[in-house]
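Can you make up a protein sequence with its backbone structure tokens?

===
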Amino acid sequence: MSDAAPSAGARPALGASQKLVVVIAVLASFVSFLDGTVVNVALPKMIHDLGGGLSAQQWIVDAYLVTLGAFILVAGSVSDLYGRILVMRIGLVAFGLASIAVGAAPTVEFLIGARAVQGVAGALLVPSSLALITSNIRGAAQGRAIGIWTGMTSVAMIVGPVIGGVFVDFLSVGAISGWRFAFFINVVPIAVVLVLLVRLGQKDVRREGVRIDYLGAVLCTVGLAGIVFALIEQGNLGWANPAIWGAMTLGVLAFAGFLVRQRFAPNPVMPLGLFRSRNFWTGNVATAFIYGALSLSSFAIGVYLQEGPKLPATLAGVASLPSTVIMILFSSRVGSWSGRLGPRLFMTIGPLICGAGVLTMLLVMQDFDYWWQMLPGIVIFGIGLTLTVSPLTSAILGAIEPERSGIASAVNNAVSRVAGLIVTALLGVITGGALNLEGFHRTIVVMAALLVAGGLVSFAGIRNHLSRGNDRSQVDEPAASSPERVE
């Protein structure tokens, strides 16, 4: 190590403007990630107020994920074409309006439709916010910035049930249920980000020659919607029903058409060439396993603790709070470590530790005791997750050149959301039709298996040191060795 290299314990500093970029990126993404999980703990009360059963609960979650997962790919191209700042502003305003519509929903069908619109708006936020970081921050500081971003957005996924629980239990006003205010409150952070964007005073940078593949977006959306509809409703109608096998057939054909379209389209929404990078495709496979498990965890724990041990919504949300605290304290430091040591070690042991923590939740019994049956697993899970998320994001985005960070971020986020979409759609199959104690235990086993698979994939596929001919990894080489990439 040269004299100029930072010491092992040093963390790269962020300048004032870089800190503002990180704050904007975190807050803009935070509302999207938060709403992906705040709904889970509110589901029982939503269904009580508006009607519906398990399939309605699944659709409330998956309507958001279908449109988010499909349109987030288009959003990456839109961000590169029109500029990250403009796209972020449009996404913020649209997300705020859709959140108000969700909170004011008079029926479950209206709520599901508003959640779908909310997913489209959320799709505009994530790739543009993360691309804002990668285009403004370089070198080891980028690893720390991405660590902060991934840590805080992951915290949003975990703290969502806590916020949802507090609103459900304590913030009802007359006949207006508290869960509605959990969506109305989105207007506050959105307004803050809009003000900070003005303060940033940065001009948009647009890529020349970018076009939007609308046909690809339609094929992707129809494909995902058809498959998810079949997976959710087959428990009610059966696979022999024409609506089920017809929707599945249409979905599979449309998604296959989407992949073919991406192979030959002049401006694909998901450029298959990105997957030539070993760290990019391996990281996305690991993402599918790990974030599938996270989505399953958020849904299953939030709902089971209310319907099994009959905990209030607030306590069901607070159950996962220790993981949040661990991530807040250590995510940025882990991001810095990963920037110096490479992501492979963290991406291997992190998911394995998560899996071990999840398996300890098999101790949950009818005679429920949070302190001995669930808390140890939550803490171990939080440690593993903290070791995983920042290195995972850095490895994937570091494998792609900065000018394509918008679409790279979009693809990775689409993979994570589609993984959550599919496992939520399969919840009825995983639980055996009911999220009772037996169904909860079955869900725990599936979660652990997904996490272990994510760790093994990372160990087998992720590389810390790849030549430029084989990969584009910013964590492999210090910024000083690549002066042409510094803006």
